[in-house]
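Predict the 3D structure for this chain.
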Amino acid sequence: MKKIFLFSLSILALSNFAAYKGQVHFSSNQINTHQRSISQLVKISENCLKRHKQEHLNFYQSNCQTYSNGQRVCLSKFYGERRYSMTRGARRSDGQPLQYLPDALRQAGFNPAYASQMKTTSCVGLALQCLKEGFQQTNQEYTWNQVMHFVRSNGVGGTALQHALSKLGWTTFYWNPSPLEDLAANAQSWDLEEKNWPSKGWHLYRYQRIQSRGTYWFNNVDDAYAMVGFGAGSPRRLESIPFWVGTAHTGYHVFPGTRSEVVEAHSTRDITSRDNIEFSRFAPFQNGGGPRWTRTEKYRSGLIVVPPTY
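Done. Predicted structure below.
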């Protein structure tokens, strides 16, 4: 097993000689406009996250039924785009079939007509939606279109989004709850634990890459220390920031946040899950903290970008 693991790391190292597809460039005027309007933009994006939270909770609490066995089940307004579709026979990009939403509602005991009131969601989708509102309402639609063109060209990945934002002056931080003196040992232990998980952090390799080259994946890291070592708490650096964008496990998971709160939209959970949109304190090592994938599998390192002037 150890040989297989080391071979996987070698393949990972080779993959890093690649780069993002295409480039994203902004004029000095675009960058100046973006930075002058950033306070308004992030407030709009923060309000977008809060609106999604309230919309989700109101719908979930108002659309419930009790089964014959006494179990009470409620319906989420937001359904994962990697699990359900309004198109019969639709498939994911990897070819896996998606459940037809009206059929899934019927199977869960709900009227299929609910489908018209529901909305798709995903981790990166929520981040993009709230950023889009901020850009558009501050008259930066052209700039946003450039961001989205680059993000789409790179598989709608979270690290590509962070890269584009960094070109507008956002600051890129490496995050890891582990104390700095224990980080390498913990990273190696996590890698071994995660070797059979669909999502792998490659924690030791990423950390070593930051130390030797100042990069994580294809992203330059501006600060590798301010959001490291926060343990079971949260990074203090985030407490006053209205909106930021985080990624974990090389962009496998994307999570926008507001101040010390993580906002996670999940694209594969059941339509009756209360946590399809999940708010939690940014504290991966804390009971009930996030970002998290399941109750036992947690994201433990990645990148966060924060807006300029914050």
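The CA atoms of residues 159 and 182 lie 26 Å apart.
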